[in-house]
Every structure is written in structure tokens, then in C-alpha cells.
Amino acid sequence: MQVPFLKMHGLGNDFVILDGRGESRALPADTIRWVGDRHRGVGFDQLITLEPAADADVFFRFHNSDGTEAGACGNGTRCAASLILGETGRSSISIRTIAGLLGAERLADGTVRVDMGPPRLGWADVPLAREMDTLHVPMEADGVSDAACCSMGNPHANFFVEDLDALDVFRIGPELEHHPLLPERANIGFVQVLARDHIRLVVWERGAGYTLACGSGACAALVNARRRGLVEARCTVSLPGGDLVIEQRADGHVLMSGPVATAFKGELTLG
């Protein structure tokens, strides 16, 4: 069976997109892992399947490269949303995900902005293994401690550091992802505050590992930095792949803006 796909990325955070609106594109976990293999398959940080939605323009389903399903993917939402915006010719659309209803729009400069909704800040929302203050979670690894946690439709733990370049992210990222206080694992974000309106971020992503960019991670980093009084409501978030603009409105909703790009299209041979 030949299945067409599109490869897109947001700041190097890359995605394989399948259109399942006409017929089911549900893939087993071992097939998802094969497609996600950067040596034997196509390679991606997340697989996105477009599906019909009763109460929105489209449903987005996300899978990590290890085959697990993810509740949210900010950069992936922006990339796939740009396709639907192009199809419809509209300036804004609504998107259903397993984490909730999102809105997306194309801005005048061609970038795509997604309303990721408000963060969830309760310990059970993240989730954490037991009741505690999510602003100060007793997690530590070599060189980092005192995590701030929230959910942006998926779990995030942020560590604020003086120098990102001094961290061995490839060593401590997996350790923290699987910390006993994180029963569903989490995206681990390492944050360096450069100014009240500018932060640096590196993310070890749950189920995908080191990524050039992480949209929901950038949202979580702004939310948790604001909770600690370190930044203003609107920030440039500099990731290894480039910059996103993140803003938290007065109603709590977090808006993420940034570029999208199409790398190539092809066909998967399944069967």
C-alpha cells in the first residue's frame, strides 16, 4: 500500500504529516517507529495524522518517534495548520486535539500563530506522582534542580540555569524525563533567562529526545518563567533551531507564533 506523506518543520522541529480525512491512516506503533527512524525510515520528531472532526475544521493526532501518542505539539500544530489554512483560503481555523480545542491563524508576515489555550498548573494536571507545589518540584540531576512544572496539553518540567552551554543535556535529559515524580514522563526544558523579554531554551522531548525546537516547550518555559517573576507576558524564545514569539494573554491563553516550512513530499510503502 502506498501512503502519501508530507515532511514539514518548524525551526528544524520536523514532522511527517499523513492525511487520514478520506480514509483511516491509523498506524501501529512498530510502523510509526520505523517511519520515525532517521536511518531506515523518513525520520521525524512527531507524526501528525489529519482526521475529520465534528466540532472543528480538523482533528490533529500526534505520535512521537518512539510510537507513543502525544497530547500536544505546538510546532507541529503550526505546520499542519498552515496546510489547512492554505486549503480553505481562510485566515483562521479551529483544531481539535486529544488535549482540547485550539485556534490557528496566519499573520500578515506569513508566520502562523496558534492559541495553545491556558496552561494547567495543578499537580494532578501535569501529572506529578503526588500532591505538591508545581512551581517548586524537588527534582534534580547534575547541575540542575528545583523544577517548575505545568501541562500545555502534555507534561513539562522546566529547570532555570545560568548557562545552558554548561549542561550535558544528552546525559541528564533522559534521566529527568524518567524521574519517579513524573509517572507519564515529561518534556524537560532547560531555560536561561537573558532579559525580561528574551529567554534561551533547550528541550529534551518526551518520546523524541533532543529537538531543535519545541513549541509547547517554549509555551511552558514562558508560563513557568512568568510564575517565578522572571519575564514579562511576551517573550522571544530562542531555541537551537531559531526563534518563536510566545505571549500569555490576560485570560491565561498562551499564543505561539513562528515560521513553518515544507521540506519534501513522498510515499510510504506499507504492507
Strand and helix layout:
Blueprint: E1 2-10, E2 13-19, H1 29-36, E3 46-51, E4 58-64, E5 69-70, H2 74-88, E6 92-97, E7 100-106, E8 112-115, E9 137-141, E10 144-151, E11 155-160, H3 169-177, E12 187-195, E13 198-205, E14 209-211, H4 215-227, E15 234-239, E16 242-248, E17 254-258, E18 261-269
Parallel strand pairs: 2-3, 4-6, 11-12, 13-15
Antiparallel strand pairs: 1-2, 1-18, 3-4, 4-5, 6-7, 7-8, 8-17, 9-10, 10-11, 12-13, 13-14, 15-16, 16-17
Proportion of beta-strand residues:
35-45%
Radius of gyration: 18 Å
- The secondary-structure class comes to alpha+beta
**What is the helical fraction, as a range of percent?**
10-25%
What is the distance, rounded to the nearest whole angstrom, between the alpha carbons of the first and last residues? 6 Å
> pLDDT below 50 for ≥5 consecutive residues: which ranges?
none
Total number of beta strands: 18
Helices, by number, come to: 4
Major sheet characteristics: 18 strands, mixed
Polypeptide structure, described:
The structure is a single chain. By secondary structure, the protein is an alpha+beta fold. It has four helices and 18 strands. It has helices at 29-36, 74-88, 169-177, 215-227; strands at 2-10, 13-19, 46-51, 58-64, 69-70, 92-97, 100-106, 112-115, 137-141, 144-151, 155-160, 187-195, 198-205, 209-211, 234-239, 242-248, 254-258, 261-269. The chain has an 18-stranded mixed β-sheet that branches. A hairpin with a 2-residue loop joins β15 (234-239) and β16 (242-248). The protein is globular. The chain starts with a strand and ends with a strand.
